[in-house]
Write a structure and sequence with these properties.
single chain, alpha+beta, Bacterial polysaccharide co-polymerase-like, 63% helix, disordered N terminus, membrane, cell membrane, transmembrane, transmembrane helix
């Protein structure tokens, strides 16, 4: 290849590229009003949609695992009497981290959440809340879901669903607005809830913390009582002094579990940062929605303009 050819080839590509961009700009400029109309329409729809969305408030609490004062006593017995203790349902190797992980999973479970919804009677505020009136601190309900005048559910659904939402629907909705996670580095637990009412969001976070502590406390007390019953029966039947001594120690540790449960309200989770009623909304991101509408309208307008040009060019060539 000659030097002249080596120089002219990239020059030709540059000129061709500039020509193609100029042609593209000319095509879009000729149909600029189509692009403007599409962009204005798309952006206007995005603005109207963002304004129709209610403000959502997020309340969050920061928790720490409650200390396990009885853990040292159980650990001391684990090496020698773990097998005997397991027969009585006593887990000598249970660590605080394991109990916290279990509590987090219980907190996310269907049974716990459905019981929580029924216990505190929050189905209406969960499934029908549309917005929040700041001046009266009242929740406004979606009239297509619940009639305040008739005091009944009026939503239109297909079987097997009913006008009144089922607990399965309520569970899914509650999981959608709730977040529970543990920081891997610090071990801190964060529980948050989003709701149109900031006060409801705060109240539900507080109730969640209270209920999960009570649930885990009740679980451990029931297990400790069953273990004590079994161990007491074994003490009454055995005649070997050393085994009786071990059994008495196990009973003592289970009695400590019950004692700590009775005196501590924050049984599994200890509140570090309490939930508050947020003053600022966490959503929706109206500016982002409007920006998306503008970008979508621009791309759609360009696509329509180019499509019209190529269709007309194809028809012209065919004729």
């Amino acid at each position: 290849m000659s030097k002249q050819e080596m120089v002219s080839e990239p020059t030709y590509k540059t000129v061709a590229t500039e020509t193609s961009f100029a042609e593209l700009f000319r095509i879009l400029w000729l149909r600029k009003w189509i692009i403007v109309i599409v962009v204005v329409t798309s952006t206007s729809l995005a603005v109207l949609y963002s304004l129709s969305l209610p403000n959502i408030y997020k309340s969050e609490a920061q928790l720490a695992p409650a200390s396990e004062e009885q853990a040292s006593g159980l650990a001391g017995l684990a090496g020698q009497f773990g097998g005997l203790a397991s027969l009585a349902g006593v887990n000598l190797n249970e660590q605080s981290s394991g109990k916290v992980l279990l509590a987090i999973e219980v907190l996310k479970s269907r049974d716990f959440i459905t019981n929580f919804i029924q216990k505190h009677d929050i189905l209406l505020d969960l499934m029908a809340a549309e917005s929040w009136d700041f001046s009266t601190d009242q929740i406004l309900y979606d009239p297509t879901i619940y009639s305040v005048e008739l005091k009944q559910w009026v939503r239109e659904v297909n079987p097997p669903l009913k006008p009144k939402p089922s607990l399965q629907e309520a569970y899914k909705q509650f999981r959608n607005i709730t977040s529970v996670h543990q920081d891997e580095d610090t071990g801190m637990i964060f529980i948050s809830i989003k709701h149109p009412s900031p006060n409801v969001a705060k109240q539900w976070v507080e109730l969640l913390i209270e209920d999960i502590n009570a649930t885990m406390k009740e679980r451990d007390v029931m297990e400790a009582n069953r273990s004590i019953k079994y161990l007491t029966e074994q003490i009454n039947t055995t005649t070997i002094a050393d085994i009786k001594t071990v059994l008495y120690k196990l009973v003592e540790e289970q009695a400590k579990t019950i004692m700590f449960a009775e005196v501590r309200d924050e049984y599994v989770f200890k509140t570090i940062d309490s939930p508050i009623s947020p003053e600022k909304k966490s959503g929706p991101k109206r500016a982002l929605i409007c920006l998306f509408g503008l970008c979508f309208g621009l791309m759609l307008g360009v696509f329509i303009s180019l499509s019209l040009h190529f269709l007309r060019t194809t028809e012209h060539k065919s004729n």
